[in-house]
Amino acid sequence: MSDIIQLLPDHVANQIAAGEVVQRPASVVKELLENAIDANATSIKLIVKDAGKTLIQVIDNGKGMSVTDARLSFERHATSKIKTADDLFALHTKGFRGEALASIAAIAHVELKTKEPNSEVGTLIKIEGSELVKQDVVATPTGSSIAVKNLFYNIPARRNFLKSNTVELRHIIDEFHRVALAHVDVSFVLHHNENELFNLPVSNIRQRIVNIFGGKTNEKLVPVEETTEVLKIKGFVAKPEFAKKTRGEQFFFVNDRFIKSSNLNHAVNSAFEGLLRSGTHASYFLYLNVDPKSIDINIHPTKTEIKFDDNQTLYAILRAAVKHSLGQFSIAPVLDFQHDNNLDTPYEFKNKPIAGIPNIEVDRSFNPFEVGLSDTPRAKKSNSEFKKATPPDWESLYVGLESKSNNSHIDIPQLEFESEVISPTIFDETSIEVKTNSFQLQAKYIIKSVKSGLLVIDQYRAHQRVLYETYLTQITVNESVSQQLLFPLSLDFSNNEIEILLNIKSQLEQSGFQFKALEANTVEISALPSTINQDQVQLVFEGLINDVENELTNSCFSQTDLIVKSLAKSLAIKAGNTLSLEEQENLVNSLFACKEPTVTPFGKKVFVTLQLDELDKKFN
Length: 620
Description:
Number of strands: 22
Number of domains: 3
CATH superfamily of the largest domain: Histidine kinase-like ATPase, C-terminal domain
CATH class of the largest domain: Alpha Beta
Strand content: 15-25%
Distance between the termini: 68 Å
Shape: extended
Radius of gyration: 37 Å
Helix content: 25-40%
Structural class: alpha+beta
CATH architecture of the largest domain: 2-Layer Sandwich
Strand order of the largest sheet: 5-4-3-6-2-1-7-8
Number of helices: 18
């Protein structure tokens, strides 16, 4: 039998490896930024075009590479980070496998310019699809500049699976945030399509968080700090009242490396137990330092998952540290039998001098039970001091009362009383008879009797369908009705979130919103659709941003369709809301007036019908 096993060519092996390393443009951003960090760069600039599909360029002022190193960096498993297997358990750098550049070069056009500090000239290398196209000497600043163009140009199927520019840019920004938060001693700049999205100078952790997520974030942060022999924790958690519907602002860093850990996340959530509203998630920025020998980070291709030697101990320490911080800053109640806050001196009176002690005179000879008290000098003195002034003509106030009291009959028709104006009604109240054949079950379903049996309607899904068609008509036909706010409403968002809102501003204005972006990460809303209350605006905008970032569903035909679906999802009547008989009938009638009442905008079933035959079988 002939041999059928053969070694793959290098370019094919690199493309297969690229499938693990490079899943989308954000994967390239992560690898290039981490390489710049490992090169001891203090200033890093990221330039992106078309959400990374056309260009991803990282420029740093690190230590650069020699000619030989520059060429070897694109070979598989070429790395300067480890020399023996034991080095895998004592890692202090980001990358160590030596697969990133080789995988990237296999599926893109790569151009590298690099120069060491002591060299007069640098090196230029161009690679396309793992093939070296050009290697030359070039004048370039100290450090490295690597540009990745036309990602997945030779794998069209992979390129077609990429999401829209908005979604891919969201992933790029997420990776940028993770690296920038982990290294506050490095300045970062991010440009997208010639627009500067972020400019982060060297700062401390709190300032870096504020620079990324907006100035209003500062008041939300509660510091967390704990040092033990096993673990050192520092960072911040957000106050419970600022909890969000999404998990976007949850960051764990272990030895300055971003990680995801369901175990550690559960520890933080348990510390917030009883403080968060239902359906919300706490925000946190926590930095953990542990012995590199006690963790294994080589268990996932993206290196975002870490295996700890002692999960239980870390869980307990982290939970206790967060809970202690919440209690220490009066976010959560604490039990302290040594201290009573009610006895604290108010801050404004702490250093104020004590006023003179008031003099109180007491008549020790006074006896309230003594007979003839009114004749005593003291009593006379008291009466003269405290007796109220009597009006001179007080007797005139009672003139005529005696004569009226003798008359037992009062002429009632002459009396006039104030009463409400009775407005005429359209219907005769005696003839009104409420007729309804529907009722609400568990504040979730509407049960309605029909000729063939029972109709069971999901009120949340039904309202989604009604709102979807209503808003779609308003936006497309431009017949929306806005209500102007007497006092404009101000909401705080990050730079990227404001950018997303401005991108969909025209569609939102057609649906009835009117707003503008102000300085300091603030959006001012001056008008709302007539169907939305002010207390719903924050929820609606957060839902919109989240849905646009993550492409609410693949079934959306356009951005307008996505916005309408997001509005319908956020504003629909949720399960648990009790509806009156009139509201039930109105919802049912509005549902069956829709063009497609059977399914939600997301393709889910709105109602089911229980036939009489099915009910009869239940009793057999």
